Amino acid sequence: MFADPYKSFSGDLLMDGFPKKVLVRKNILANGRLSLGTEMDNTSFYMYKNSRTCEFRQLEINSGVIYEHSLGNNLTGTLKTGMRTVPQARAFDKEESFKDYIFEARYKPSFYFNVGISYNPFGKPRVK
Fold first, then answer.
1. In contact, 40 and 26? CB cutoff 8 Å
2. Cα distance between residue 17 and residue 15, in whole Å
3. pTM of the full structure
4. Domain span at residue 98?
């Protein structure tokens, strides 16, 4: 099913802690896993105008629920849902400090929902 090199609490309740995310996972049903927690992500890109270079940088925090289901043959289906918050989004001149920004965006928290399928070509084949 799922390989879990994470810290085990009691039974099949696991803590997954990395710099970008903190999740508590629990295996459910025969081939499923439910996770609760928070993931951080960022968006960054450059804008060029004449001889000026600006950067836009945005930090996103997604808190919610993830359900993963093993579909067999190294395939995994994933459903994610929760709240997305953006605590900081700024555009600034690349030659200046991040604190001396040109533009700052403020967003309200919003609902998100993702559906995905992933394939692991290096996964072990299922033993019948």
1. no
2. 6
3. 0.72
4. 7-119
